[in-house]
Amino acid sequence: MVQKNLIDGEWIASSETFRNINPSNTNDVVGEYARASADDARAAIAAAKAAFPAWSRSGILERHAILRKTADEILARKDELGRLLSREEGKTLIEGIGETVRAGQIFDFFAGECLRLAGEVLPSARPNIGVEITREPIGVVGIITPWNFPIAIPAWKIAPALCYGNTVVFKPAELVPGSSWAIVDILHRAGLPKGVLNLVMGKGSVVGQAMLDSPDIHAITFT
Hints:
By secondary structure, this protein is α/β, with parallel strands linked by helices. The chain contains 7 helices and 11 strands. Helix content is 47%, strand content 21%.
């Protein structure tokens, strides 16, 4: 079965697919994945842009519940997800499970952060003037992640982006799509509204470039 991209809350097929191969056993095909086009990336960006106004105003309890549910499922499936990570990336099994636990802990941490969103009120150097600092979502965040930590790095980029009310377009490294697809699937089933998180698996020169060129992406995080 081909694992599809997630765009505007729907799993979308592509005209091209690619195989995810176990680097320690090239006869082991971990999975087959849809390869997103530049048009898919632009559709994902448009979906994230449309979802931003409602998500940025969503209640902190809603965000907390989704991130906490995600953390719970990742931790409950640590052995399964750790084995998937090890097959596609090449880590030892104990490292794959350890990284998966770390990802679950990251989502758990930011679930807690949802409930303690706060600013600061400071005195000004000018008399009778106050200074108020608030934390506001910035808009659509483009996330491009590498192959070496295929579940931990997506977790520590996606979790804070969603926690603080941003929407996301996520492109994982093409060498390791399985862990990323799994984490997106968990978040999707945890109740994220459509368009809040979009997954576009594909080439950096195509999907990544479309993200970099888009005026509707307000921040890019790349590791």
